[in-house]
Amino acid sequence: MMASRNQNRAPRSPSSKRGDGDGVPLDKRRRVGAGVGKTAGSERKPFGSVNKKLEAAASSADASSKDASESSCIEFTKEEVEALVNEKAKMKRFDLKGNLEATTELNSRLKLCLKWCQKREEGHVEEESKLRNDLESYQKRCEDTEVEMRRVEEVSRTTIVELTKENASLKEKLSKEESEKLAAVESYRKEHEARIALETEKASLSKELEEANKKASLDAVTNNNLKAYNESLQQYSAKLHSDLVTTRNLLQRVEQEKAAVVENLSTVRGHKQSLQEQLAISRASQDEAVNMKHSLVTEVKCLRGDLQQVRDDRDRQLAQVQDLNAELLKYQENTGKSQAELDVLISKAQLLEETCSSHRKQISLLEQKLTAANEKSKTLDMTAAEARTGFEEQRRIVSELQERLADAEQQLLEGEKLRKKLHNTILELKGNIRVFCRVRPSLPDDARADTQVVTYPSSLESLGRGIDVMQNGQKYPFTFDKVFSHDASQQDVFVEISQLVQSALDGYKVCIFAYGQTGSGKTYTMMGRPEAPELKGLIPRSLEQIFQASQVLMSQGWKYKMQASMLEIYNETIRDLLSPNRSSSCESSNAPGKQYNIKHDANGNTHVTDLTVVDVSSIAEISSLLRQAAQSRSVGKTQMNEQSSRSHFVFTLRIYGVNEGTEQQLQGVLNLIDLAGSERLSRSGATGDRLKETQAINKSLSCLADVIFALGKKEDHVPFRNSKLTYLLQPCLGGDSKTLMFVNVSPDPSSVGESLCSLKFAARVNACEIGVPRRQMNLRPAIAAVDSRLSYG
Ligand code: ADP
Ligand code: MG
Questions:
Q1: Distance CA 167, CA 173 (A)
Q2: What is residue 632's predicted lDDT score, i.e. its pLDDT?
Q3: Can you tell me the mean pLDDT for 373-389?
Q4: Percent of the chain at pLDDT above 70?
Q5: pLDDT at 782 > cutoff 80
Q6: Averaged over 163-173, what is the pLDDT?
Q7: Atom of ligand 1 at shortest distance to CA of 744?
């Protein structure tokens, strides 16, 4: 900006400042510059190179006019101003007036200078804005020119391309035309040659013709031939001639074409020339434009550099200001935030302190509790340890006690065994009749009673052995070897007599009686009921046991032979229940001619003549025999008017055993007797046959009682022969036998009198001693006899 202005003004030399009187401005300047002339002598620096075009275009008229007006003002250089500012009025001591003047002058000069400075400042500002405008317009123009140039360039480029294309096509055309022309020329030349050749030929032919014509005369034939030949030749010549004409026409046309082509070529060439000229012109203008563009670009670059600098400064300042503002804002924000945070933190801290204090309190409380709990746990530990030791002690004691208990139980078991053995021994030594009492359960037909007729004492000494019967408010107590109440099963009863059965197998003579009034359960006890196995009576159970035991003893070398017989004694008559000829129709019911006489031999063995004795070797055989006997009895029962309860049933099993290893032999007898009903005559109220029957029963039973009591009293005479039953059982009731009597009792209140009678009888029997039982064992010399007996069966 400065540059453009200063360049319009002639640089001033120091001499010009000092120059003397070239108008007012110079005077003024001299006055201002007075005293500083020497220092302000240096020439003002010329401004940087500026585009001449710009100078000419932009700052032409108004700039120069402004300069002209300014040149009327007083002007200062930088050095002059500095000198003026630094100058001090030359004071003379006593020349106050002079001093004042000098000061005034300096003042005025300074004022002028100041004014100039201000003016310049204003000028500068104006200039700056103007320059800025100029620059903008320049830039705009530059851009316009650039765009225009670009457009022109584009246009000229397209024109060039078009021209080049046209040129190429024209060239191509030209070359084609030329080649065509060459071909035409060539053909023409050829035609020409051919024509010449033909003409020469024609000439030669015409010569030949002449010669031939000359010769025609000579040879007519030849002439004719020649004529023909000539004709043909003429034809050929005419043809050639026509060919020539067409060729000439062609040639003419070709030449015309050639002329046209040549003309065309010349016009194309002219066109090409003009185009090339145009191209050259546009190239030149393009170059010019490019040059201009370059210069403009460089200028713009310069201006842009300046502008950029100024902008950078401004931006820097602005950025600084913004930074500072941002920082300020940040600080403000931070302080605000910090304040808020601080408040929050303070409140939080207060809260925390509160919770802390409460926690502290809790902790102290918990600590107290903990110490208390610790103490408690210590004491508990101690007590637990004590308890544990106590527990261990207790456990030790318990185990000790258990051991002792086991020992005691073992001892008890052994004691029990010993007791049984001793009991057996005592029984054997004592040898008395044993009496068991069995009370049947109440039946639906039994009379009802308010009080129980039969009760069982619960005292320890008579437990399972005592029975009390109430009659007319009076209690009659009885004690037997065993009392079975109504709920005792067949098996319970059998367990108690199994030892007795076993002794039959060991060689003893055994009798088991069932005594009691009719309906008290004698047959139930002895035979049981056939419908269920658990209701089996003592007879089948005893036989099963004997067979099983004999099987076991066989392994020890024992051989057994068993013989079974079953008979009935009714009215002192023996009946064979196993007789195959047994007739159920007749009263006597015995087979005709059979005499059942009872005989005892010297060895104490009983034999009944004509009685059926069956060898049995298995339970199945015994079962079928028992069924047969029961049938015989049941037949009699229905046909003989309850005869069964008025007859004695005797089942006898004789057991012969031989041990070949030890040369032992033994002979046991098992008698199982279901006695007739023991009820008294008055009760039965019978007359006639019935009376006789009852009398017979009572007689035989009383005979049995007599025998037992006589044996008990050890009288010399025992009345065995008074009844068939006692005589039959004589060897088995003697001193070396084992006898068991079941007294069956009915709980029916209407039978209490009979029950008392039965129990009183049984009690008397129980008090008897029959003697010491003895096993019937023989040694070797007796074996022969046994063998003969075994064969007898
Ligand atoms: P007895 O032979 O003495 O005349 P029974 O043996 O015929 O008597 O018995 C009479 C009734 O009583 C029969 O119906 C029998 O089944 C029944 N009875 C006897 N004793 C018992 C008992 N212990 N358990 C169940 N019923 C029995
Ligand atoms: Mg009976």
A1: 10
A2: 75
A3: 93
A4: 80
A5: no
A6: 90
A7: 3
By most ligand atoms within 8 Å of CB, the mutation choice from 436, 437, 439, 440 for ligand 1 is 440
Atom of ligand 1 nearest to the CA of 514: 3
Buried b (16+ CB within 10 A) or exposed e, 32-54: bbbbbeebbeeeeeeeeeebeeb
Cα–Cα distance between 50 and 134 in angstroms, integer?
Answer: 14
Examine the pLDDT at 513 and tell me if it is beyond 80.
yes
C-alpha span between 170 and 734 (Å, rounded): 178
> Which range among 88-97, 238-247, 250-259, 638-647 shows the weakest confidence by mean pLDDT?
638-647
Q: How far is CA 312 from CA 3, 318, 358, in A?
A: 22, 9, 65
Q: 383 a known binding residue? A: no
Q: Average per-residue pLDDT in the chain?
A: 80
Q: For residue 515, give the ligand nearest its CA.
A: 1
d(CA 402, CA 408): 9
Give the whole-angstrom CA distance, residue 432 versus residue 705.
Answer: 14
Which range of 67-76, 92-101, 229-238, 680-689 scores highest in mean pLDDT? It is 229-238
Write down the residue that tokens 């318990």 correspond to.
398
Distances (CA, A) of 121 to 78, 113, 310, 771: 13, 12, 18, 177
Q: Is 793 part of any known ligand binding site?
A: no
pLDDT in tens, 263-290: 888 888 888 898 889 889 888 988 888 9
Amino acid at 521: G
User: Highest-confidence range of 10-24, 63-77, 81-95, by mean pLDDT?
Assistant: 81-95
Q: Cα separation of 231 and 225, whole Å? A: 10
Q: How far apart are CA 739 and CA 732, in angstroms?
A: 8
Residue owning tokens 């026509």: 242
pLDDT in tens, 647-689: 899 999 999 999 888 888 889 999 999 999 888 765 545 567 7
Sign of CA dihedral 154, 155, 161, 164: negative
Written as six digits, the tokens of 47 are: 């401004």
Instruction: Let me know: does 793 contact 613? Beta carbons within 8 Å.
Output: yes
pLDDT digits (tens, 9 = 90+) for 200-216: 888 888 888 888 777 76
On the 0-12 / 13-18 / 19+ scale of CB atoms within 10 A, 538 is: buried
Euclidean distance between CA atoms 434 and 427, whole angstroms: 9
Full DSSP string of 395-433: HHHHHHHHHHHHHHHHHHHHHHHHHHHHHHHHHHHH-BP
523 in a labelled binding site = yes
| Helices and strands, counts by H and E, the chain | 18, 15
361 vs 356: CA distance, rounded Å: 9
- Nearest residue (by CA) to ligand 1, atom 9, is 521
Q: Residues 6 or more apart from 496 whose CB is under 8 A from it? A: 436, 482
Is residue 646 lining ligand 1, measured as CB closer than 6 Å? no
Q: Does pLDDT of 379 surpass 50?
A: yes
Question: Token pair for residue 601?
Answer: 């031999």
The yes-or-no verdict on residue 581 having pLDDT over 60 is: yes
Using CB atoms within 10 A of its CB, is residue 110 exposed (0-12), middle (13-18) or buried (19+)?
middle
Q: Answer yes or no: are the C-beta atoms of 670 and 546 closer than 8 Å.
A: yes
